[in-house]
Amino acid sequence: MNVLYLSYDGMTDPLGQSQVLPYLRGLSEQGYTIHLVSYEKQDKFKKHRNHIQKICDDANICWHPQDYVLGGSILTTLKQVRRMRKIAFYLNEKYTFSIVHCRSYIAALAGLRLKQKKGAKFIFDMRGFWADERVDGGLWNLKNPLYKTIYRYFKRKELQFFRESDYTISLTHNGKNEIESWKPLKDKNLNIEVIPCCVDLDLFNPARIDLSEQQTVKEQLGIQDSNFVLGYVGSIGTWYMLPEMLDYFKLQLTHNEQAVFLFVTGESPDFIKSAAREKNIPPEKIIVVSALHKDVPLYLSLFDKSIFFIRSTFSKKASSPTKQGEIMAMGIPLVCNSGVGDTDEVVLKYNCGHVVKTFSDVAYLEAIESKEHFDPDTIASGAKNYFSLEEGVKRYVKVYNSVHG
After folding, report:
1. How far is the C-alpha of 101 from the C-alpha of 106, rounded, in Å?
2. Pick from 95, 28, 48, 18: which is nearest to 297 by CA?
3. Which domains, from first to last, does the chain contain?
4. What is this structure's pTM?
5. CB atoms within 10 A of CB 360
6. Which of 187, 250, 379, 387 is the least crowded, having the fewest Cβ atoms under 10 Å away?
7. Within 10 A of 225 (CB to CB), how many other CB atoms are there?
């Protein structure tokens, strides 16, 4: 079976390496012939092209990378959508795809046309309520008539994607329940499979950490055995609440002056340290390091506890933080906030950390002063049960088999 996978995200981006390629490798192993179209930012493409090409070659994935045009205007995006459609139809003439699997809304604009014109089965891998994310994140101001028009367009397309998809993939049960409650979809027998952002348990495996490498990294970063390491992994961007996480750490310092805050991120160290200075946190307490995806487990192994606070908005009902599965797989307890996808339910179900209900000193202190013990093996077992890549691939196989008949 030939499958066309369309992604507006790049495979040379961290997200492509953690949340696209591992699934496609698993599907390829099940006998599907995958053709992958992705949009690559030139700086990352030049740096990581050979690495990604080898991954694709080893997994028998046919990669068709395209240039991602920087600029961010809606006109630029629409031009790239038209280009994606042309590529999809061109490749279909050569390979005749049974399925077109679309990652998020931009790709779905191209993929749905392939279903309508050529009969390919259409899988809408929504990844979140994209248009609402743009509004909630402050990128589209609905007081601006242009953005209001664009928002309404995508909300109409969203309903069309749900109605015409042969299967929809939701990252969360919370998101699935929200979709099924919408009146315009009540007459539609929706096929929705919940597949969270899974984790490669072979890669994120504490038993595979080389202790000598771990010690070397600690020395390079200036981390002492006496330090308590609070850790954050991933980008910060629009949704992650850096000031609130720094407030938490500042209180942590009052209880343990040996605490340090380690950021494993591609963000600018100056940006993070500047935000810390505004909170009167000593700069030597903030450590920022960038790492390739394959090296992230080594850095995570330095964490005593991890933290992520995410803005709780309507669109975040459908959000599954990639970092949650990775942190849990390494057996690390975490601190997070409530109201984001299924995140807090997973934390409580598998007893893997603290859920903060309010962004306040009282709530932070409750987590910091808690004597509750979180067992690393129990946390890792929770990741295996809920975020296993193997289980995620099985669910995708079920969807593929279902739509192919």
Report:
1. 12
2. 18
3. 2-198+388-404 (3.40.50.2000), 206-387 (3.40.50.2000)
4. 0.90
5. 12
6. 187
7. 7
